[in-house]
Design a protein that fits this description.
Structural class: alpha/beta
Length: about 280
Amino acid sequence: MTGIEALTQAGQVMVASGCGGTGRELGAYTDLTGLAFVTRSITLDPRTGGAMPRVAETPSGLVNAVGLPNPGLEHFLATELPWLVRAGARVFVSIAGATIGEYAELARRLARAPGVAGIELNLGAPDQLGEHLFEVREPHHAAGVVAAVRREFPADLPVLAKLRPDHSRVSEGARMASEAGATAVVIGNTVPAAMPDGRPGGLSGPAIGPLALRCVAEVSHALPGLPVVATGGIASTEDARRFLALGAHAVQIGTALLHDPTTVARVRADLGTDLREDSP
C-alpha cells in the first residue's frame, strides 16, 4: 500500500489537529470508527501551553493563543494513542519540534508505534504561538523538515505537510514539500491575529475560509498531481463541497467542532451519500 493509498483510505473528512481533544471528548458525539483523526501537535517533551485565557470568540471565528500544550511523546504513546486505536480511529499524529532533528526523532519513534496511520507536520503555526519551536520562515525550511521525517518514516504511510495559508508563497511551499517527500499538503492553518488583550494569537473559523479557498485553488491549479487536504472555515457540507470542487482531495474540520461537535459526523455522512450517488 502506497502513502497515497493509505491517505485515500482515510476518506474525505478528517478531524483537524487540536480540535478533537484526545478523542475521548469527540467520541461522546461521533463514532470514531474509521474516522481520520489528527491529534493535537505532539512534541518530544511536555508543553504547558500559553497563559490564560487562551481562547476568545469573535463574530467571525475564534482567536487562540494555546501554545500547543501536550503531554509529550512518551505519555501520548502510553495513553492517548492506544485509546484512539481501540476506538477505531485512523490516527494521524501531528508533530512539532524545536529542531529538524526533533521532528526526525518524533517520526522515528512513531514509525514503530502500532496504530499510526500517518503523521502531519505542523509547519505553519503563526508567529509566537509555537514559541521555542523550529521556525518555518521559507519554503526550503519546510522542505528540510519533510526530508528529515521522510527518511525516518515508512514509505507506505503518508506524511502530510501543513503549511501557512500564505497565497503569495503557498504554491512554492507545496511544491518544495512534495519534492522533499510529502505525500500531501494540508492547506489552511490559523492566521496571525491578536487576543483581546493584544497578545499574539491565531485566527480560525469562517473568517479564514475565503483565504484558505484561494490557497487551495492556487495549489490545485499549479500542482494538479499533488493531493491537497483543505482546512480553514469549513463548517458545513456546502463548505466542504466548495473545496473539493476546486481540487482538494479531502477536508479537515476544526473550529466548527468547538461549536457543534457533531459537525464532522454530519459532513462525513453527507459526502458519503454524494459518493454513492455518483457511483454507476
